[in-house]
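Tokens help. Our protein:
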Amino acid sequence: MRHGASLHISLCLAVTACGGTARLPVTAGTGVAPVLPPPVTSFIPLVNVVEAKGWRSGTEPKVARGLEVNRFASGLSHPRWLYVLPDGDVLVAETNAPERPDDGKGIKGFFFRYFQGKAGGGVPSANRITLLRDSNGDGVADVRSVFLADLYSPFGMALVGNNFYVANSDALVRFPYTAGSTRITAPGFRLTDLPGGRLNHHWTKSLIASRDGTRLYVGVGSNSNVAENGIDKEFERAAVWEIDIRTGAHRVFGAGLRNPVGMAWEPVTGALWVAVNERDELGSDLVPDYMTSVRDGGFYGWPYSYFGNHVDTRVKRERPDLVAKAIVPDYALGPHTASLGLAWSGDNLLGPPFTNGMFVGQHGSWNRAPRSGYKVIFVRFANGKPVGQPIDVLDGFVRANGDANGRPVGVVIDKQGALLVADDVGNTIWRVTRSAAAIGRVTERTQK
């Protein structure tokens, strides 16, 4: 064996061995009052990634009792995010990171890219949005069309009136839309620049429109784990932006949110909720990802602290003034679960107990042993706030040997009330509904 190859393998083994395994179950870092043990740091962080293999023929995720799952669409190219048009057509962003030559330099960057590729995240971006139509209502898309092509790592989508908005990695772009169309060929109008460039660590830009259609909200992730590239590189990042839909002018609506991704409106309070990926490399038990309502002008800690006033001593520039006003997030989603997708239950077909709360797509950990996430969960709400422990909805994305069948990302409720889940490693969109047997049991009880 060549010396270079031997050194490479030795370093890989060293990386995976460092950092320490979890001492607490994931449930301890989940809920309205998560356990936050002392941090554990090491020069080389623990790396425990899956190896992406895809689904074997005839296999599918495991569903909760009373539910069933089928392939709504397959053979896609890294499907990450979903959007449902008013007529029921489903849009999927087939996308991945753009070129980022200044991101991930040095030995840590080398291993990050290596393990990212192993976990299925190294494929080139298709840079398109694809339209899927179920024309006969059988729960399987039978029409597929390239809705928009030649985009720039697209992610978030929103339709307001006759305008369709796409959050590319570097800009919010507007396109004219005609109801029922399967393709947009008109050029887009660049409404607002978004943070991007050569250093663009968290590249995804999520998007949701206000209910009155006057504003757009964009999730902009940080340019680092804990500002190690310099706080100047984080200007207006780690934030949710509010954008005036007429002028494109923006302001920071909520800050200190390391990587805000999925967003949803909670109907009781009218609050905007967001799923946030917290920082890494503080041990397997820290820091829990979370979902929270976003207060206008609120600050949520990153990078100076987490879950209120728990100071992160790795940050070189101290800001006790910001730590003092850091808001404690509403609900922890478990350490390192990579909770990305977020969707309000709405009028779905899944039935109780999935009728009042949030569905969360958990892409899965890389910095925890044992692994966490790699499933879709449901968090119940009461009076506009989350309660209790989550309920597993869709699981089985990781095989017993640690290989990944798939990894869930975006979640959305379709026009018929089914739950759709984008699986970027399995290149599939899964559709979850109530099982015929469960419907039969309910019917039988009501007839007695």
The two ends are 73 Å apart (CA to CA). Confidence is low (pLDDT under 50) at residues 1-17.
